């Protein structure tokens, strides 16, 4: 995508963090923003802010893990706004805790949001884009899907087994999608940010079996690390916009993102040693 003006963007997890920041960055470039989140007031606030910068949009309360809800959402988007030009699958959660204390229910929850949610958004809206493009000359086909993974997709972390696993799956899914959807004229980009000032540390769930005082300590430690890093979501959003313009495949963002990527490629044994460092359990 070289020209965003007049287009429509669907963004999940749009109530805060990368979702809100990217919504505002795209609104500044003339896109209509369709903000989806379980937090409807937060999504409405994002649309309100976007309307000050661009053509505005609409907010929707959606559970990305619920395929029926996502299909209903996609039908509403198509009926009310047409097929979107850009879809960003950003909704995500984190669960902190040792592997043996991470219950099956914890795994179901995080896979549902972090992986199944990306599958749902990509498959349902990707099909809309493909159907729109068929019959058009190749140069006129359009559509782009952005999937938000993490620097954690490159490296193991003993306190985040479910989070690292789902984010690594999102990265591989995106690579497969990119290969498959290229013939449909649809671009796919996977973004892997390092630390940034979002709410994910405070809002992260803690695996069963972790004492409450330890859980609170982990939350405080995570919040402090993100705050001290001083890398705002707006910088990640700017990199996302540039990646879409260039149709980049996998994009690491900030120092930690690049470091994790290169360590995974050239020093995996170091990654494995670092992963063994106790997390305070």
CATH class: Alpha Beta
Task: Kindly report the average pLDDT value.
Answer: 91
**Rg over C-alpha atoms, rounded to the nearest angstrom:** 18 Å
Number of domains: 1
CATH topology: Rossmann fold
Main sheet strand line-up:
3-2-1-4-6-7-9
Give a quick account of the main beta sheet: strands, pairing sense, barrel closure: 7 strands, parallel
CATH H level, superfamily name: NAD(P)-binding Rossmann-like Domain
Structural class: alpha/beta
Beta-strand residue fraction: 5-15%
Strands, count: 9
Roughly how many Å apart are the termini?
Answer: 46 Å
Report the total helices. 10
Tell me roughly what share of residues is in helical segments.
40-55%
Any idea what the CATH architecture is? 3-Layer(aba) Sandwich
Poorly predicted segments: none
What can be said about this structure in brief?
Keywords: Oxidoreductase. The chain has helices at residues 17-28, 40-51, 67-81, 104-133, 161-181, 200-203, 212-229, 233-246, 254-266, 268-275, and strands at residues 8-12, 32-37, 57-61, 86-89, 95-96, 144-148, 187-193, 205-206, 250-253.
Model description:
The chain is α/β, with parallel strands linked by helices and 281 residues long. The protein has one domain (8-275): Rossmann fold (3-Layer(aba) Sandwich). The protein contains 10 helices and 9 strands. It has helices spanning 17-28, 40-51, 67-81, 104-133, 161-181, 200-203, 212-229, 233-246, 254-266, 268-275; strands at 8-12, 32-37, 57-61, 86-89, 95-96, 144-148, 187-193, 205-206, 250-253. The strands form 2 sheets. The protein has a 7-stranded parallel sheet with strand order 3-2-1-4-6-7-9, sandwiched between helices. A two-stranded parallel sheet has the order 5-8. α1 links the parallel β1 and β2 (32-37). α1 (17-28) packs across α8, α3 packs parallel to α4 (104-133) and α9 (254-266) packs across α10 (268-275). It is globular, with a radius of gyration of 18 Å. The N and C termini lie far apart (46 Å). It comes from Actinocorallia longicatena.
């Amino acid at each position: 995508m070289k020209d965003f003006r007049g287009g429509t963007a669907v963004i999940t997890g749009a109530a805060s963090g990368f979702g809100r920041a990217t919504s505002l960055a795209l609104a500044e470039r003339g896109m209509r923003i369709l903000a989806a989140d379980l937090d409807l007031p937060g999504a409405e606030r994002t649309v309100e802010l976007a309307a000050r910068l661009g053509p505005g949009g609409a907010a929707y309360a959606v559970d990305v893990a619920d395929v029926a809800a996502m299909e209903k959402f996609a039908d509403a988007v198509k009926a009310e706004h047409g097929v979107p030009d850009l879809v960003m699958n950003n909704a995500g959660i984190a669960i902190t805790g040792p592997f043996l204390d991470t219950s099956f229910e914890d795994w179901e929850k995080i896979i549902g949001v972090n992986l199944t949610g990306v599958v749902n958004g990509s498959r349902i809206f990707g099909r809309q884009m493909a159907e729109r493009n068929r019959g058009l000359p190749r140069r006129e086909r359009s559509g782009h899907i952005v999937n938000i993974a993490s620097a954690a997709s490159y490296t193991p972390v003993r306190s985040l087994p479910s989070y690292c696993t789902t984010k690594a799956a999102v990265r591989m899914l995106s690579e497969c999608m990119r290969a498959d959807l290229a013939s449909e004229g649809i671009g796919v980009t996977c973004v892997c940010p390092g630390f940034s000032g979002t709410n994910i540390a405070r809002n992260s769930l803690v695996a069963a079996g972790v004492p409450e005082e330890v859980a609170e300590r982990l939350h405080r430690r995570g919040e402090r690390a993100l705050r001290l890093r001083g890398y705002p979501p707006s910088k990640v959003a700017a990199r996302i916009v540039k990646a879409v313009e260039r149709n980049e495949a996998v994009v690491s963002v900030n120092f930690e993102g690049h470091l994790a990527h290169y360590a995974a490629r050239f020093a995996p044994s170091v990654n494995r040693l670092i992963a063994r460092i106790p997390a305070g359990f």
